[in-house]
From TrEMBL, chain A:
The keyword Transmembrane helix applies. It comes from Psychrobacillus psychrotolerans. This is Cytochrome c oxidase subunit 4. GO terms for cellular component: plasma membrane. It is a multi-pass membrane protein.
From TrEMBL, chain B:
PROSITE patterns: COX3 (PS50253). It is a multi-pass membrane protein. Its main location: membrane. It comes from Psychrobacillus psychrotolerans. It comes from the Bacteria. This is Cytochrome c oxidase subunit 3. Keywords: Cell membrane, Membrane, Transmembrane, Transmembrane helix. Residues 1-206 form the Heme-copper oxidase subunit III family profile domain.
């Protein structure tokens, strides 16, 4: 079994650089979180304000989709390298998800 | 390989969760599982949408009179914040700061428990109103969808608590890093599902 991991000791410069980089990444994560909170606020406010159903429903679905993409690509690291197979798994599931919803709704409405 | 080998912040790998073969397999296998979870929730969402506000004739409950937005808003904020706290936990894992990670995971668990408490309160409230599991096709679909999500929260909390306790005195190793990583992915996935629940079930329910 290829369980062996090579131990690599970073030089002080490399170590400082990577620490700095992680800090920057973490700041970006907090910004992402801010955007997600903002999108949630818009959704709830739009519903509480009582706009037309035909306006609200597409808008809040779009905002939910954006929020989920942020969650997947930043919080769950799908934007990093080495996630092609992961994306394949997930998008296959999303394709099935849409098929399910379409099928169930059409069976009920036309049945 | 000695799984208990001790690392320092200087030698700790960039992606400790994917260094060993076991870690790589866990990472990939866990994402395959999340794909399966997506399909599970898709079927529950599809059922809910098909049966929303339907049931026996003369049904007294409908989404726009039943749901209360302030409670859902608080639950959403709690769960969203718990997602950020688990990002902080993974940040500390990358920096090989074990105590920092355990602390942020503990905060995540507390937020998760608060969410769970509010959900139990909500379900209890509905049952007292007469909107129980067997009341109508709508109620069954609602409780199955939101309840399955709640069950995931319970499992996620149990998982994180067990990880924290089991490794409390061990510190980081390439053996437990993939475990922490997948647990945090699971917690984020719970939040992903909740985004659709608060939008499709609660917000679209209140709109009509």
């Amino acid at each position: 079994m290829s369980h062996d991991a090579q131990v690599y000791v970073r030089s002080q410069t490399e170590f400082d650089y990577i620490k700095q980089k992680r800090k920057k990444d973490m700041r970006n994560q907090v910004t992402t979180f801010g955007i997600m909170i903002f999108l949630t606020l818009i959704s709830f406010t739009a519903v509480a304000a009582g706009f037309s159903v035909y306006l609200i429903v597409p808008v809040i679905l779009l905002l939910a989709a954006i929020q989920v993409v942020l969650q997947l690509y930043y919080f769950m690291h799908m934007s990093e390298k080495n996630h092609q197979v992961v994306a394949f798994f997930l998008y296959s599931a999303v394709l099935l998800a849409f098929t399910f919803i379409l099928t169930f709704l059409t069976i009920i409405w036309w049945g | 390989m000695d799984f208990n080998k001790k690392y320092t912040p200087q030698t700790w790998p960039d992606h400790p969760e994917q260094v060993t073969l076991e870690g790589k397999n866990k990472f990939l296998g866990f994402w395959l599982f999340l794909g399966g979870e997506t399909v599970l929730f898709a079927s529950l969402f599809a059922t809910y949408l098909a049966l929303k506000n339907k049931g026996p004739s003369g049904m007294e409950f409908s989404t726009n009179t039943l749901f209360e937005l302030p409670l859902v808003f608080i639950m959403t904020m709690i769960l969203l914040t718990s997602s950020l706290t688990s990002v902080y936990a993974m940040y500390h894992m990358k920096n090989h700061n074990f105590r920092g990670m355990q602390t942020w995971l503990a905060i995540t668990v507390l937020l998760g428990l608060a969410f769970l408490g509010l959900e139990i309160y909500e379900f209890n409230h509905y049952v007292h109103l007469g909107f129980h599991y067997g009341q109508s096709a709508f109620s069954s679909a609602f409780f199955t969808l939101v309840g399955t999500h709640g069950l995931h929260v319970v499992i996620g909390l149990g998982w994180i608590i067990l990880l924290m306790l089991r490794n409390a005195k061990r510190g980081f190793s390439l053996y437990n890093a993939p475990k922490y990583y997948t647990a945090s992915l699971y917690w984020h996935f719970i939040d992903v599902v909740w985004v659709f629940i608060f939008t499709v079930v609660y917000l679209m329910g209140v709109v009509g």
